[in-house]
Design a protein that fits this description.
Blueprint: H1 2-22, H2 35-54, H3 60-74, H4 79-91, H5 93-115
Length: about 120
Amino acid sequence: MRKHQQAIVFLLLFSLFILACNGNNKQIPKGIVAKDTMAFVLMDIHLAEAGARTITSTPINETVVSYYQFIEKKYHISDTTFKQSMQYYTAHPEIMAEIYAKISEEMSKKEAEIQHRP
C-alpha cells in the first residue's frame, strides 16, 4: 500500500511540474505585442535611451520621444498598444524574464558582430 501512495504522490508532483513548465507558453491576448517582437521593441528603446544620453545639443526628453515614435512606426504599434503590452508583461514576470533573456541574447550577438568587424 505504501508504494501505491508513493506512486500517486510522484504522479501528482510530476503533473504539477509539467503544468508549471508549460505555464510560460500561455497564449498572449489579442492586442498585446508578441513576445519576440516585444523583445526587439524593448531592445530598441533601451538603445535609444542610451543614445539619447550621449546627445548634448538636444533636450533628452525631445530626443527620446522622437526615438519612441520611430520605434512605434518601425514595429507598427501604437503608444496605447505598447503601454498595454508593458502592463501585461509586467503583470507576468516569468514572461518578461523570457523577453529580457531574448534581449540579452540578441545584444550579445550584436556585440560579437561588432567585435569581429575588421
